[in-house]
Amino acid sequence: MTDDQGKFKIVTDVNEGLFKVTSVGYQTLYIKAGQDLTIQMKEDAQLLKEVVVKGQLPKTHVKGDAMRTTVAGTILEKAGTLGDALTKIPSLDVEKEGGIKVLGRGAAEIYINGRKMMDVNELARISSDQILHVDVVSNPGARYAASTKAVVRITLKKAQGEGISFQNKTQAMYRYGWSANNLLDVNYRTGGLDLTATFWAGTYGHNKSLQEDDMSYFVGEHKENEIFGHSEQETRHKWKGLMPQLQINYMFNENHSLGALYKYDYHPKGELTSQFNTDEYENGLPMERSESEVFQDEKFKKHIFNAYYNGKVGNLGIDLNIDGLFDDTEAPGHTRELAWANGTKTNDCAIRNIESNTKSANNFWASKLIFSYPLFKGNLSLGGEYSYNHRTDAYSFEASEVVPVKTTDTEINEKSTAGFVEYGRQFGKVFVQAGLRYEHLKNDYYNFGKRDEEVSRNYGDWFPTLTLSVPIGKVQTSLSYRRDIQRPAYGNLTSATIYLNRYAYQSGNPELRPMYTSSVVLNVGYQWMGMSVNYSRVKDESTMWSEPYPGADDPLVCLVRPINSREDYNQLSFNPYASPTIGCWHPTWYVYLLFQNYKALTAHDTTITLDKPYLNFGWDNTIELPKGWRINAGVRYQSKGDVGNCRLLKAQGRFDLGVQRDINLRRLGSLTLDLRCNDVFNSDKTRCTLYGPRELTVLNPTRRTFMVNLTWKFNEARSKYRGSGAGEKQKARM
Predict the structure, then answer these.
(1) 497 — pLDDT class (breaks 50, 70, 90)
(2) φ and ψ at 330, to 5 degrees?
(3) Radius of gyration (Cα) for the chain, nearest Å?
(4) Does the model's pTM come out above 0.85?
(5) Residue 28 in contact with residue 20, Cβ under 8 Å?
(6) What is the bridge-based pairing of β-strands 150-156 and 106-112?
(7) 241 pLDDT exceeds 90?
(8) Residue 186 to residues 198, 246, 712, 713, Cα–Cα distance (Å)
(9) According to the CATH classification, is domain 60-732 in 2.40.170.20?
């Protein structure tokens, strides 16, 4: 019987011999006996009377509190990178920015061999053939922070061999321009010592943001005049960066290991240029046209540190982590705006110039300690977490004429403490896990050195969790409950107001409250198919909101800022999926269907219920060909419908196509060539409306993206690093 990590022991007095490993549908293996072995089985196809019978273990099944997807020995290990493999797991959605979402739950925390992933670039650094299995936890237990919506636990295959190994990956992308980067990973292993050095460097310039906005609202004593504004914005962001990383691990024996990690992230140059044109109409007649040219030069540096000890004293398990994060960001900018009355461009125009500078910094420390002990045929875990952050934000500006913007200098000192207890036990075929977590947060908010009592916070909350897993015949089921919290990002708490154009300003909201969600999730799995059902009750959700600028003389000037929803609302989602293997064809289908009853305010001072169903459909295909060739093709479709405070007005979809080739270089290792085109037909266009006193309709055009990846592996090995990280949700808020 294996444990939750897939490990097992065979106790015998025989010191030499062979292990014979067999499983239906997999090739028989003969392995020389020894300790710390990794056994990886490969699928076996047998020809029987001209009919191919291919045995196959379920790729996704219920495992304790998670839905586990096996990667090793399946087509998923040929996906390319870790991120590529995750895109092919039905319940996961990989966003354009690299974040991972669990459908129906939201953004997920990623753990790799127990270590919290601190950089989305790790999804591209790790190859899919290094993965053993992936656990998707829709309702995480009490050991995870209450702000954790979902967890994806990735277990890598155990490293084999000693000596030096390296991997080099070169990537190029083209969309509106070129981006290129290179990642070199060198590993040295001898005895219990494991040392890894990584260096990433790249330039980013392939992307361009195109957006069209329509804003409508009413002004006047009786709101008798309708104002309509149409804006077109084109933004380019080009930057260069480098990221060295060093990590060391020493394993004394299987019960004791410790290590440390240091990473430096430096962007010396980051130019943002934007052209922002707006036409304003009053009761259908042209009122004004404005054209803004925006330039910003952002540069930042970040230091990340982690040290850990992972061990076992008798039956007592110990997991200790200490983390630090220190960063500085500065973004000086310039805006030049031209405006013409009556909407007609002439030589007579008003000119406004804005010089601004935005600075922010974090000084963050965290620690986490977890004990585990077998108790009453189950496992008891308890632990605590402490974090401290000193956050500063400053915004200064100079304008050629008076604007309703103030210089700000804010400071946040935040202390967070947490404790939890969790117990899990197997009762025959039934697995039960229950937990309780308490979190306390003390937040002192200062403006120009003076403490602001109204927005400073001091509160605590209890968060219960419960998971029940039981097989019903050949069907595997899991039912879980969790209450969680989403605290505002630090950037959304600042009072700094940023100039967008003569009619629009943007700021944070120091009075923004946390969002609470209570969720019940049902997971069902049968062979290569399954379904997830999620019901959630949401309180105080945060949404972006456009309203008249407080105290402005001109009623047309608006302020865009985050606010909390006025009423609680419900969400119900269904996520069926299927992932069979049919000869050399490996398809995956999934459907995500969402129902909700979100109530929003409209520009007419009425309330609308956003309850139109939303559908998301995906179909991925991998076809294996001779001589190491593979073809990947995928389809994504999103229907019209309502998601939170957003109404999608147009169905959208895309078609992705790629080809891969593995080349065996014999003594020189292996080479993998990966060519792709995402959104082949330029069809992934978004059009939606955000509701509020001033309704905003947004259109985001798109363009296909070409990518090429070349990966060379020599004497490949994998790190033994076991740090799990502390204070991860506080770091994410930065």
Answers:
(1) confident
(2) -140, 135
(3) 27
(4) no
(5) yes
(6) parallel
(7) yes
(8) 6, 10, 12, 10
(9) yes
